[in-house]
Amino acid sequence: MKTDRSRQMLAEANQYLAGGVASSLRAAMKPTPLYAAGGKGARVYDVDGNEYIDYLLAYGPLILGHSHPLLNEKVYQAMQKGYTFGLQHEGEIALAKRLTEILPCADKVVFSGSGTEAVMMALRLARAYTGRQKVVRFHGHYHGWSDAIFTSFPSADMKSQAAGSAAGEAVPGTGGQSVNSLEDVILLPWNEPDVLERTLTERREEIAAVITEPIMCNSGCISPREGYLEAMRKLTEQYGIVLIFDEVITGFRLGLGGAHERFGITPDLMTMGKALAGGIALSAVAGKNEIMNLVAEGRVDHLGTLNGNTVSTAAAMAVLDELGRDNGAAYRQMERIAGQLAEGIRSLMKKYNVNGVVNQPGPVFHMMFTDQQEVAHFDQFGRRDAAKYGLFAELMLDEGILLRPNGLWYVSAVHGDKEAEETLKAVENVFAKRPE
Ligand code: PLP
């Protein structure tokens, strides 16, 4: 695989762009961060002329793949009228209304630009609503990079877990983060109902919110244990604590109504981003009137110059139209292809005596090399062979498959049988070359 041009461009970027890449995570790609020339459907092309089937999907947003015709058309139409006004416009009402119709937890919504901002807003709402300060979050979950919640990078494609985080104490995840920023964060292991019950019971007077990914997508795509989210819902309700589902990954990916619809558990607030506008910057918080009305009452400020702009809201409407079409045909397709890939990889692991686990809750899944029988807890996730997977991802590039180096795969609505077949062939080639 040729990477000369990408390497030249990275050298040039390093002269002007701090770190060479636009988000620290992207530097982890081996053999070198790649420069995109374009994308179409499930495929992406780099500046050296390589073509890949794309399972990185821009870290999740490209649920309709690259350059989807409907998304292009709607964005183009919106742009003709103006990108953003700082005035109100019809598109923001239409999208807000649609979200309240499809998300069980949504009486009202607010818009923002990134998942990080949506989480910041949700925490602010929770504190204002309860008059309390502390926030419970969990090991292995990622809720964006704001000082208020960032404990450490979530997985080994970036850095190792910060030492304190692994030991149970929330410590800043990066240089420059305010040393006091996590004083109000209580970091707990996830999927442990007893620890949760004990903490919430003992500290209920202090705790404003529990924030959780409903499926631990950022560390192993680990599903909640039977009854765990139900217990979380029951306890938070009992103690007047705001339950926030961070659905920045699961929102619109596990179904139009996200993970909370799938599990039949309604959080008080939900954050969403990534897939919502199919690759255009847009995020949102949705929740029940009692909490969301704090904004209308002027008790909580919600700000942002580009919030709810015409382009992003038009993009989101196109995504929701496409995902909702033909009774959710897109979801059936994504589930089928993701299932085919996960099953195919598991069989190839058996065939080639490669020890590993694939956790596949839906059209996002995590592939890991490990001697363990299962990865159902963050500790088990920590014991996977991350370096071996990094090497696998690098070898897959040679086979024309673009993967995130940490093991997380995203499948879009335009990945089909042909892509799945080519991908499994590539996995087989890599396993056959490295039989250990
Ligand atoms: N929440 C979750 C669950 C995420 O996975 C992410 C990003 O990966 C975020 C929040 C932050 O979103 P963004 O990168 O758009 O700021």
Automatic annotation (TrEMBL):
Pfam assignment, any one: Aminotran_3
One Gene Ontology molecular-function label: transaminase activity
Entry-linked InterPro entries: Aminotrans_3 (IPR005814), Aminotrans_3_PPA_site (IPR049704), PyrdxlP-dep_Trfase (IPR015424), PyrdxlP-dep_Trfase_major (IPR015421), PyrdxlP-dep_Trfase_small (IPR015422)
Top-level taxonomic group: Bacteria
Cofactor(s) in the UniProt record: pyridoxal 5'-phosphate
Keywords annotated in UniProt: Aminotransferase, Pyridoxal phosphate, Transferase
Family affiliation: Belongs to the class-III pyridoxal-phosphate-dependent aminotransferase family.
Full protein name: Aspartate aminotransferase family protein
Native species: Paenibacillus residui
Lineage: Bacteria, Bacillati, Bacillota, Bacilli, Bacillales
